[in-house]
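User: Is it possible to get a 3D structure for a protein together with its bound compound? The compound here is copper (II) ion. I've pasted both below.
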Amino acid sequence: MTSATGTDSAPPDAADQPRAVDPPDQPSYLADGHSLRSWLGTRDHKRIAILYAIAITLFFFIGGMAAALIRFELATPQGDLVTAETYNKLFTAHGVIMVWLFLIPSIPQVLGNFLVPLMIGARDLAFPRLNLASWYTYIAGGIFTLGALLLGGVDTGWTFYTPFSSMFSNSNVVMALLGILILGFSSIMSGLNIIVTVHTMRAPGMSWFRMPLFIWANYATSIILVLATPVLAMTLLLVGIERVFQVGIFDPALGGDPLLFQHLFWFYSHPAVYIMVLPAMGVASEIIPCFARRPVFGYRFMTYAILGIAVIGFLVWGHHMFVSGQSVYAGMVFSLLSFLVAIPSAIKVFNWTATLYKGSITFHAPMLYALGFVGLFTIGGLTGLFLAALALDVHLSDTYFVVAHFHYIMVGGSVMAYLGGIHFWWPKITGRMYSEAWGRVAALLIFFGFNLTFFPQYLLGYGGMPRRYHSYPPEFQVLNVLSSAGASLLAVGYLLPLIYLTWSLFKGKRAAADPWRATGLEWQTDSPPPTHNFAEQPIVTRGPYAYTPTP
Ligand code: HEM
Ligand SMILES: [Cu+2]
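Assistant: Yes, that's possible. Here is the predicted structure of the complex:
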């Protein structure tokens, strides 16, 4: 391996003193064709990552608009802005878009697609055409799903509980189910691609335990994607069949079993929450060592924890059904198993913290996001334990407490990490530096706005405010107003990166190959990388995270 090793004791200082940039000897992937065709027909994983980035950003802001309307409605106790029915359609649109069109593809399809080959020293993913097919499938599913949500709407919630969804709802359920079904195929294609790539395309010397944790995280996520998504596809298909052909599957009036739906749905959807958070953990594991100038504490344990989460995550789905009427004994087992899944998560939090210990920490924008991720994920995880306690969940189930719990993990955790990763790898992806000052302002604003939005929701839920209603008793108004105010700040916080990152594309300083003095393979090629990633095949001679602290 070349250079990079010599400089790793210096703190990252890219924003303050950019290093000289050597002229690249090969044209970058961005310069390799400028026509629309060269983008829409590309097989380059880096370009496909950008196609994904554009699409998910669009969906993120559409989903965000639904959230804004929800928070406007909840600023007053009366249901005065929209009707109850429209409100149902709004939270369904918000949930469906954010889960399937944004969170599931976000880190794996954008950062994973771009970085997995670079980080393991490969020229591309194993199946470049499948990669492009996955993007087109995603777009087709996205158009279908969005069409269902906007043309008439869907009022079932993102969970599509039967028999309401299969027999009683008068909304666009079948079209939405088909859209999500198509999106599932995209997930499976990409999952397979990553699995085969990690198995077969690693550079010489890159043994399993020399792989960066981001690769481990994406690998484990891909296994979940491939194993769990077919269950969702089948379940949605069954709902559609019951709805269209009146075959009794879930509706008790036709001889079906509504709990069967909940079992099948959560058998996918609990593992799916780890699809959303494992890649985020991978991002944090790259950023924290770099800005603490310390190797990850307990690398092996981190890999075992990732695998542990992926496996145990398949065994806890029944914790979503404590009040559904499932047997108490099943509930006890699911409660115990849910506590178990917290152990590997806690190991990770402990190890990130221990990585910081005695490090030379600098608070650049990516690090602010990564630290925000750790804190908010921890709060989300701990409140998950409240919910996993059988008796407590009887009180908290279907309240705002649950809403706060999963937003702390999925928004405080995954979205923070996604933004952290975008900031960390932005110089590599685009070849440009963004304004560090604005980066820090946005990270702090998002952190503050996030907490103001969602912390009051824990209190509301604990006080008994149920989720999914468009009006509420007046005593809940103060906390709801705080939450809506926080949401406004958060919206500004999310718009800021859109502005200064776009600006940097045209006016930002040119980025060096390794502006943060990071040690991963992806930093050893140009910024932005040439089409085939590396001028010569990298040979790996050491583990990841060869950082040493500055005295
Ligand atoms: C320490 C690990 C975790 C535990 C013990 C845990 C526990 C729980 C429990 C018991 C519920 C059901 C509450 C109810 O409906 O009454 C729940 C809901 C939920 N959790 Fe977690 N959770 C954990 C981690 C996560 C993670 C990592 C995510 C996402 C990335 C997540 C996302 C969700 C979502 C989306 C829901 C609500 C789904 C809905 O009803 O719409 N959880 N959690
Ligand atoms: Cu769960």
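The first helix runs from residue 36 to 40. The radius of gyration is 23 Å.
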